[in-house]
Please model this.
Amino acid sequence: MTDPRPLPPLRPEIENRSLASGQIGEVKRPLSAWERVTNIDWVRRITILLILAAAWEGYGRYLNNPLMVPPFSMVMESLWQATVNGPLADRTFTSVRVLVIGYACGVALAAVFTALAVSTRVGTDLLSTLTAMFNPLPAIALLPIALLWFGLGIPSLVFVIVHSVLWAVALNTHSGFLAVSETMRMAGQNYGLKGIRFVAFVLMPAAFPAILSGLKIGWAFAWRTLIAAELVFGVSSRSGGLGWFIFENRNQLDTAAVFAGLTAVIIIGLVVESVIFRNVERKTVRRWGMQR
Model:
C-alpha cells in the first residue's frame, strides 16, 4: 500500500566555496586611542567627577554667595586646611573606628541569625518576624534609648550602627540562601555536607551575590546612621567625629568647611566602594561567572 502523502520537493545542492583572506575584509579593527581610553572604568568615573566639579565651580562663582554655595575650589582649600592644620583627620579616624566596630558586630549578628534561619524552622520564623518588626524602624529613632542604656559615648553609636546593619545584611543573606537551586542543594547533600559545612561550601558561594549586596547596603546604612547620630549628640569619648565636625562648622556659618566635611564623607564612601567592594566583586562573583 502506497503512502498518499506527497513527498517533499527536492532542493538543489549548494556548494559554498571558501574565500581568500583578502576577500573577507577586516576581521578585527584596531581600536583608536580614544576608544582604548574610554574603555577603562576608572577613567570614565574620574571624568564624571571632573565634570561635576566643574559644574559646581561654575555655579558657585555665578551665584557669588559663599555662605550658600561656596565654589568647589574654596571647598577643596578648606578641606586641605582642615586636614593638614585642623581636626578633620582626627575626626575622620574617630568616625571610621566606630563605624568598623559597629559594622563588624552587625555582620556577625546577621551571620548568627541567618545560620539559625537556615538550620531550623523556628530560626526562619524568628528572623522573618524580627526583620518585619525592626527593619522599617530608623536606627536614629533608637538613639534616645541608646543614650539611656549606654550613655554618651561610643557604645551608643555602636548600638544604632548594629541596628542599621543587622537587618539589611540578614535579610539579603537569607533571601540569597532561599534562591539557591535544588540541584545545588542535592549535590551538596550527595557529598555528605550538613550543617555549617553545607552552609559554607554550598549556600554561601551560590548566594554570594546577594550576600555582597547586603554588605554594601549595610555599609551605606551604617555610614549614614553614624553621621546622623554624631550630628544629634556630637562628641563621643572626648573627640567628635565627622558629624560633629559638620555640626560645629554649621554653627560657625563656615559653609565651606561644612562642604569639606561632606566631601570627606563622600570620599570615604567612594574609596570603600571602589577599592574594597569592587575588588571583592571582581575576584568572586565576576570571576565565577555569576555577574556581568
Summary: The chain has a mean pLDDT of 81. The two ends are 60 Å apart (CA to CA). Residues 53 and 292 are 30 Å apart (CA to CA).
